[in-house]
Amino acid sequence: MTSIHDNEPDSTVYETRVSYLMLLEEKQRALSKKALLHRLVFISKLSSELSDKRKLGEYYEELFEKLENEHKAEGVSGILLIYPGYVVHLIETSSDILYDILRDLDQLASKNSPLMTEPKILTISHDVPTRLYQQWSFRILNISSGRDEYEGKEGVNELVVETVTLLLKLGVYILKTPKLNVKDNLHESVPELLIPQDQIGYLLQRPELDSPAMFLKTFDNPVDTVLDSELVWPVAENIAVDMK
């Protein structure tokens, strides 16, 4: 009796096909990374009810510890800059933790949190090659409040690029300055690498930037795209079903 496997080709004759996913996984193993690394940058207003700004930093320390224990994935690195009236936060971590952070940020915004309000996402970068910030920390910037109106002429896209670039340059500076203490005043040592407050306030007012709720709505909803060809009759020959 002939086996169903008798007519199958010998698997040893063929080379193993390598997929793009396999290449990415191999890349992560070479870098000793448990998962792909992603980078989130968001800005927000500081709540007027927040009397001690250290509470915001402590809140995120507890949140990150909780999420890292839940997911057992890549830890969190980055920097939280706390201005007199604004928040700038860069986070590097795995996708699972990143989206949990966004959901938590959405809850803070919807519940009128005493920590911060009206957050906006500047950028989310996927598959970041390596961490720029080796650990997570927060800095309270003891500077005077900025101007209320932004006087620049750049568009939103240019300002977002400029803002993210400054954060990346700040990360390079901290990386190259191993003796820099968490308590050191960045506004005194590298004021040129800090985002102007009026620029942050301007970006928070722009409707082009997504809130966490808007981003998560797009992320969670299924993709249901109607192609133009689906609205045309008769059906094109190359996709028509042969009924013979």
Automatic annotation (TrEMBL):
Protein name (record): BLUF domain-containing protein
Domain BLUF per the UniProt entry, residue ranges: 37-140
Pfam families with a match to the protein in the record: TEX47
Organism: Clavelina lepadiformis (Light-bulb sea squirt)
Species classification: Eukaryota, Metazoa, Chordata, Tunicata, Ascidiacea
Domain of life: Eukaryota
